[in-house]
Amino acid sequence: MIKEFKDFIAKGNVMDMAVGIIIGAAFTAIVSSLVADLINPIIGLFMGGVDFTELFFVLGGGDYATLAQAEEAGAAVFAVGRFIMAVINFLIIAFVVFMLVKAVNSAKRTEEAEPAPAPGPSELDILMEIRDSLKK
Prior knowledge:
Elements: H1 2-10, H2 12-46, E1 57-59, H3 67-72, E2 76-78, H4 80-113, H5 123-135
Antiparallel strand pairs: 1-2
Helix pairs in contact: 2-4
């Protein structure tokens, strides 16, 4: 069973998948920063200064100034802002992945559409030319 597991892990597809997951995790951090540090302020500017990350509703009693204070107090909160940011993150990641797949597919089509270079003379053709030259 261990040998089968080693064979499975050694297959190229599994290694490709592992690399993809690692790169995806790093890419997610970049997109999260993009949304939090660049997109949120722009959206907040157009929405009259609303910061989506702090948009929440307390379920039950209590009045808290920030989401962190509500969570620290153990209050049940409906964190609408986090959900909105997660949706924005997803849409951005999905769009970038779509663009990458589109670029790869375009490159593959271009590669397939290029005609193969005309084959050079075969070994037999060269030998026949040498033979004909020697006959002269």
